[in-house]
């Protein structure tokens, strides 16, 4: 597999590459050719990363291409992990990055369209991830729309771990958490369909915790604000946990989720009344390289309100991003007059 990582010289890149090269991400027998892209001034650091990869001696790693040319980086790739963007700092919301990052995804979407494999699977991580994925998708009309996804698996893992820590069970004992909507502070972490493996068998999380005030209040806030809490503590955004989540996302999409429900931000097909086309996080199961949105989950009034609120934020982000794109198109058209 040819796997491109953009922004590979950054902090997530450094934490992610060992997952990819050790077989954790794409399976233990999939040989990997890495295409590492970063901007010109990061090339020296990227060469250092390449040297370290060589020193690791990963059996699955066949070749490492290091470049600042997106044309080279995207040629013939089967998977694209898009980290390359400005991260947010203290006091910023992820959508504050839209103006800065929209242009990167526009240009890179256009190039993916031209030179990547037509089956390339894309996960956008750079924030605001959902809307950046939409921008790249819109600029890559020859690649199937469903191949563009954004990362909400980190939020999913955070939600699962919060419940597990409260119940003093391993994280893997908690199943069917869902992140609905945007990778932002409006996201809706929902455990109304979650179960936990106990000595008595699988029980509903709501029955074991029996504290709706916590599940509708503090739990949701902690997950929504976890990224900001990490920035405040580290003065840098999450990287180790983001890398693990990216690996989980790609693993499940390519290799299969083994019947498990996981969260992925994918183009809405109108399921659950979510406006078609938005890159919205849904509960999905994956097999044979495809994801399917889980249908017929019960949505109560509380959930409906939360799901709509995060959808409305995504609609606003989309409109702002499309206005940027159209403004650019106008400027280009005017400059040709
Ligand atoms: N969706 C999520 O769950 C999630 C989680 C953590 C971080 N993030 C986001 O991921 C992104 C990367 O985070 P990081 O901590 O690795 O940041 P970082 O600043 O350490 O690394 C980003 C890298 O991208 C490079 N870059 C910038 N513009 C580029 C371009 N046009 N082409 C290629 N490379 C480019 C930079 O040179 C840098 O090396 C940020 O936007 C961050 O907010 C998302
Ligand atoms: O919060 C951020 O900006 C980084 C990342 O999106 C996260 O959720 O940790």
From TrEMBL:
It holds the Pfam family Ldh_1_C. PROSITE patterns: MDH (PS00068). The active site is at residue 183. Coiled coil: none annotated. CDD domains: MDH_cytoplasmic_cytosolic. Signal peptide: none annotated. InterPro entries: L-lactate/malate_DH, Lactate/malate_DH_C, Lactate/malate_DH_N, Lactate_DH/Glyco_Ohase_4_C, Malate_DH_AS, Malate_DH_NAD-dep_euk, Malate_DH_type2, NAD(P)-bd_dom_sf. This is Malate dehydrogenase. It comes from Guillardia theta (strain CCMP2712) (Cryptophyte). The lineage of its organism: Eukaryota, Cryptophyceae, Pyrenomonadales, Geminigeraceae, Guillardia.
């Amino acid at each position: 597999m040819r796997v491109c990582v953009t922004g590979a010289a950054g902090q997530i890149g450094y934490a992610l590459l060992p997952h990819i090269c050790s077989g954790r991400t794409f399976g233990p027998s999939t040989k990997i050719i890495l295409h590492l892209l970063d901007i010109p001034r990061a090339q020296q650091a990227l060469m250092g990363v390449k040297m370290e990869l060589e020193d690791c001696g990963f059996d699955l790693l066949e070749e490492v291409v290091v470049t600042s040319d997106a044309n080279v980086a995207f040629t013939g790739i089967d998977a694209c992990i898009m980290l390359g963007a400005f991260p947010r700092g203290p006091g910023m919301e992820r959508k504050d990055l839209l103006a800065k990052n929209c242009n990167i995804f526009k240009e890179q979407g256009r190039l993916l369209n031209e030179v990547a494999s037509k089956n390339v699977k894309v996960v956008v991580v750079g924030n605001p991830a959902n809307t950046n994925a939409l921008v790249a998708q819109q600029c890559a009309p020859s690649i199937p729309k469903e191949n563009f996804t954004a990362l909400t698996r980190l939020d999913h893992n955070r939600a699962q771990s919060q419940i597990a820590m409260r119940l003093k069970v391993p994280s893997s004992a908690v199943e069917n958490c869902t992140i609905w909507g945007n990778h932002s502070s409006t996201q809706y972490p929902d455990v109304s369909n979650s179960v936990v493996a106990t000595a008595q068998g699988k029980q509903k999380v709501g029955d074991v915790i029996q504290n709706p005030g916590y599940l509708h209040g503090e739990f949701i806030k902690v997950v929504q604000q976890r990224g900001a809490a990490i920035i405040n503590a580290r003065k840098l955004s999450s990287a180790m946990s983001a890398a693990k989540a990216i690996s989980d996302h790609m693993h499940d999409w390519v290799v299969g989720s083994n019947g498990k429900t996981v969260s992925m931000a994918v183009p809405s097909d109108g399921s659950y009344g979510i406006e078609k086309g938005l890159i919205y996080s849904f509960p999905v199961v994956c097999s044979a390289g495809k994801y399917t949105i889980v249908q017929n989950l019960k949505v109560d009034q509380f959930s409906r309100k939360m799901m709509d609120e995060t959808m409305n934020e995504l609609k606003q982000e989309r409109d702002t991003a499309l206005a940027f794109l159209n403004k650019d198109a106008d400027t280009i058209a005017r400059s040709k007059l």
